[in-house]
Each structure stands twice: as C-alpha cells, then as structure tokens.
Amino acid sequence: MAKEKDSVEIDNFKSTADLTSNPGFQSSLSIASKNVADEKPYNPFEHRTVEHPNSTIGSIVHLLKSCLGSGILAMPAAFKNAGLVAGTIGTLLAGFICTHTVHILVKTSQEVCVDAKKPSLSFAETCGAAFTYGPKRLQPWGDFVKTLVDYSLVLTYTSVLCVYVVFIGSSIKEVVDVYWPDSPLSIQAACALTLVPLVLICQIRNLKYLVPFSAIANILIFVVFVITLYYLFTDLPPVKDREMVASITQWPLFLSTVIFAMEGIGVVMPVENEMAKPQQFLGCPGVLNTAMVIVISLYGIVGFFGYVQYGDNVKGSVTLNLPQEDIIAQVAKLLMAFVIFLSFALQFYVPMEMITRNRKGKESKYENFLQVGVRTAIVTVAVAIAAAFPNLELVISFVGAVFFSTLGLLLPAVVDTVYRWDNRLGPLNYVLWKNLIICIISLIALFSGATSSIKGMIEDFGHGSVGNHVNETLT
Q1: Which residue ranges does the record assign to the Amino acid transporter transmembrane domain (predicted)?
Q2: CA geometry: angle 321, 455, 333, nearest 5 deg
Q3: The whole model's pTM is what?
Q4: Which of 134, 152, 268, 343 is deepest in the core (most CB within 10 A)?
C-alpha cells in the first residue's frame, strides 16, 4: 500500500499535470521535469484531444494541396535550367531531401513531446523544445529559437500568399485581355479583385472544414493537369532536341524553384497535430510518404515533358505556353487560378495558427471580432504587396531561395542535430554528417537563389518597371 501511495503521488506531480493540461508550449518548461520517474513512459498520442480531428485520407489531401500549387507549373522552366537528365535526377533527389527533412522534423517533435510531457508541439515549439532539451550549453536558447521560427513562419507564408495573389491576378488578366484587348486589365486591378473572396474564405478557422476545399482543389488540379498534358503531348518534339545537362551555373535556379514548389513545411505540423491517428503520419506507406510519392511523380512528369514540348521558350508557368485563343486553354488557366484560390486558406492557416496560439489565455469577449479583423488585415496586406511587386517569377525565386531553403531544409537539419547531440548521432556520427550535407545544400540554394532574385529586382527598379513588369514576365 505504501508503494502504491508513492506511485500515486508521483503520477500527480504538479509540474507534469500542468504541462499536460496546457496544449501550448510554455517557455517556463522545467528541465528537471524530464527526470520525473514515471512507471509508464509518457505517450503523447494518448493525451491528444483534438476538437476536430482529421482522418488519414483528409491529412493526405491537405499535404497534397500544400505541395501542389503554382510551383508545379514552373517545373518545365526549372528543367530548362537543369536539362532533362539533370532535371530528372535533381527532382528525385530534391524530393527525397524535402521528404526526409519533414520526416526528421516530425520525428523530433514526437520524441521531444515525451521529454516535455506534451501531447503535441507546433513547428516553432518543436524547434525551441529541441534546444531546451538538447545540450546544456544550448538550453537557454530555446525561447529565442521558438520566437525566431514563429515570426519566420509568419513572414514566409505571408510571402507565399503574395505569390498566390499575383498568380490568381495574372491568370485572370490573361483571359480578360483576350476578350477586351482595347481595355486591358491592369495587374493591380486584377489583384484587387481577389481581395473580398480571399477575405471570406480565410474566415474558416478549422482545418477539418478546409478538407472539402482541398478535395475540390485536388479534383480541379487534376483536370488542369489533363488539359496541360494534352497540349504537352500533342506533336511532341524528339527528346534528343533538348539539352540533357544544362550549365552548372543555372542549377541554383532549378534548385530554388523545386524547393519552393515542393516544400510545405509550415503545414506539416498542424496537419500531424490534428490527425485522429497521428501514428500513421510517418512510416511506410504512411501519410507523408504517400503524399510525397504522388507529388514527386507529378512534378517530374510536368517538368520533363513541359521542357521537351516548349524547350527554351518555356515560360514561368507552363499554362502560359498554352494557346491563348483556345477555349480549353483559357478554362485551364481559370481553373488553376481557382485551385490557387482554394489553396490560399490552407497556406493562410500557418501564420494564423501562431497568432491564435500566442493568444491562448488572453481571449476577450471581443475575440471573434478580433479574429475577423486580424484575418482581414493579413489578407489585405498580402494583396497590397502583390499589387506593388507583381513580378511572379522573381517573387517565387526569392521566397523559395530565402525562406523555404532555410525553414524547410536548414532548420530541420540543425534541430535534429542539436536534439541528438548527446550520444544519439548514430554509428560514426552519421546523423551529423548527413545533416551537414543538407545544411550545405540549403546554404547553396539560399545564397545563389537570393543573389539571382535580388539582381533581377534591382534591374526592375533601374528600368522603372516594377509596377508593370508582370506583363513582360508572362509574355
């Protein structure tokens, strides 16, 4: 009885009870809490209580939608910068690396949840907790890393929203100008037309309610792919007419485009955290592997045959190579714009998740009005920035090189290394060397892609055409 009494007292140790009752990661986590001697190891999956859990199929749909966006239409242009052989190999390698970095991030999150006695952690919380429960010298950096990643995610996905607005506006403008050539629609006006619909769809607050939108978007994007592939395979030129391996100086442009297109790192943790069966996210086949195999296959097909069909004349979005006078081609452009519109809310969920999480415990009776106001303000800012800098190609390159190479490749590798630094780097420290290679690839993409994008922006300013350059980009 005495032993039984002691075990009851341990199970109700106050710091553990506080940690498991609060879903948000707190900066006041006690390092000593991981030394509490539990009779049964803490299982975070058993303590998760999600109000609107996603099914396994719903989670796959969300991951597909987060990775299949405007970036896939830029894959033929990416192949132009690599060549058919190098592009095919590069797409497979980039897809493997992106999948692996997501895997190690989720794996680290699940393991650090055990240390922190937490049912789930967000992306930023995982990075902060990895430092907090890592080497002693780095433990004080936990709060700083968490805050840094939080604001980096907000900035990154706000930039993605700007790309989406430019893409939607550009597609609308292309079709409208065919029917009203005497009164062409400005790109600024086209972007402004998206404001009200985007504000309305971004008022949806639960991922579960976005599943139907993602499902519809996946169906429509399939239709767009069928139409696009029809044009790609019509009178296909011989493969030998295309370059097999492009100049190595062009490879960084290929890498930054692929990283932007494939990375959905900010959506991964919200999707995993809201799964009804999170243990099915990793593993084989698993949610992650299933979604990424589909994504990599589609990217390779569109990129390869798009470059074979159009060669060096391929444009930033392969749909822009489709004949303007064909009704079917116009339908494809409008459908893809609608797909990006439906995807907007899913990408918007990432910055709002951080804002909502940081407001927990601070809610007021005007919380609903505040939510509506914040969501409207973020969408308005994204539309305004898109209208001011409507160069789609440069924005995609810059966002992919600077933000996604850092958050999607560099950060997961660093976090995994830090968390496993004390005697968990594997035989011959293979984890350290593997993550070091990923960091080098990330830095190459960062500096080379950012340099090219900034040079292009400077040229735009020099020619005084920042506000009107999108027409040149599209044509």
Answers
A1: 54-454
A2: 20
A3: 0.73
A4: 268
How many residues are present in the chain?
A: 475
In angstroms, rounded to a whole number, what is the distance separating the alpha carbons of residues 141 and 9?
A: 32
Separation of alpha carbons 432 and 414, rounded Å: 9
d(CA 232, CA 333): 15
pLDDT digits (tens, 9 = 90+) for 260-274: 777 666 677 778 777
In this structure, what token pair is assigned to residue 119? 């049912």
- For residues 249 and 100, the answer to whether their CB atoms sit within 8 Å is no
Residues 373, 38: Cα–Cα separation, whole Å? 45
For 14, phi then psi, to 5°, come to -60, -40
> Could you read off the pLDDT of 170-220 as tens digits, one per residue?
888 878 888 887 777 787 888 888 888 888 888 877 767 777 877 788 788
Contact 397, 449 (CB under 8 A): yes
